[in-house]
Specification:
By secondary structure, this protein is of the alpha+beta class. Helix content is 30%, strand content 35%.
Length: 148
């Protein structure tokens, strides 16, 4: 099966990632899905828009997958993120981890999603029912890991 890109404008396909990461040595499968919700900070959200630096995002997420596999000893880690307009209920990010055991799989999945939020050049803009629009605060670039 062809490996999906890390940054996608089309809806994310969990079944594809499950198939892509199939591993007979893995007894644990952990999936995290970040899903667009209908509220934020007391306001009704109509939809979100994600923009990203595509080339850098692909590099950062590929490196994060590799780092997560090495750090936690898991056999598989795949991360995909949406870009563009997303409606309520759509997946904005999927993290799929497979490991021999559940403890490492849960820890790896949590690390991957938390670290993605710190490193990936992806920006979220919320569109509210009252007509207002707001970018969500992120992590300053100085906090990101850089290769020298």
């Amino acid at each position: 099966m062809k490996k999906s890109k890390h940054l996608q404008s089309e809806p994310l396909d969990l079944a594809e990632l499950i198939a892509e990461t199939a591993d007979p040595s893995a007894g644990a499968l952990v999936v995290f899905s970040g899903t667009v919700r209908n509220h934020h900070a007391g306001k009704q959200v109509e939809y979100l828009n994600y923009t990203a630096h595509a080339a850098l995002c692909e590099k950062v997420l590929a490196e994060l997958e590799s780092e997560t596999r090495e750090r936690f000893g898991v056999s598989q880690c795949r991360i995909v993120h949406r870009e563009g307009d997303l409606r309520i209920g759509e997946d904005s990010v999927l993290v799929v981890v497979r490991s021999a055991h559940r403890k490492e799989a849960f820890a790896a999945a949590e690390y991957a999603i938390n670290t993605l939020k710190e490193r990936a050049p992806v920006w979220k803009r919320e569109h509210y029912a009252d007509g207002t629009v707001d970018y969500q605060e992120g992590v300053p670039l100085s906090a990101c890991k850089h290769d020298h």
